[in-house]
Design a protein that fits this description.
The chain has one domain: Immunoglobulins (Immunoglobulin-like, Sandwich), CATH 2.60.40. The chain starts with 12 loop residues before the first strand and ends in a 7-residue tail after the last strand. It has a 5-stranded mixed β-sheet with strand order 3-9-8-5-6, with no helix packed on it. A hairpin with a 2-residue loop joins β5 and β6. The protein contains no helices and 9 strands. The protein is an all-beta fold.
Length: 123
């Protein structure tokens, strides 16, 4: 592939990888990993280090929490984060994923849902 061939402003591209969003709530088999992709926009020039906290919530209780290291912003000032959340050992049910991005006194939160072992309709 020609260097620079994939350079784009497409937010759904991570390096040479094209991100395909999941429509609706995915249902995972027990032990299957959940792919997560997000882009954060830190305040340029701030001395405050950006931080990301990911939480998994089941029935209102936090059952998993991670504060992963973030890469440096790219040339456009974006921080792209991609990971797979392991679900081994999690009980079947409907889970909430909370992504909380903080930089100093500023914060942004996004929430999405997924299921392990059973669809929302019980299929």
């Amino acid at each position: 592939m020609t260097p620079g061939a994939l350079e784009t402003d497409d937010a759904l591209r991570f390096g040479e990888t094209r991100i395909v969003p999941q429509l609706g709530e995915p249902t995972l088999a027990p032990g299957q990993g959940l792919p997560v992709f997000l882009i954060a926009y830190p305040v340029a020039g701030s001395s405050d280090k950006p931080e990301l906290t990911l939480e998994l919530v089941l029935d209102g209780a936090v059952v998993g929490r991670s504060t992963p290291a973030l890469p440096a912003p790219d040339e456009r000032g974006r921080i792209a984060y991609v990971a797979t959340i392991p679900s081994a050992g999690f009980s079947p049910g409907r889970y909430e994923v909370r992504a909380l991005f903080r930089q100093g006194s500023l914060a942004a939160e996004e929430i999405t849902f997924f299921n392990i072992g059973t669809s929302p309709a019980g299929d």
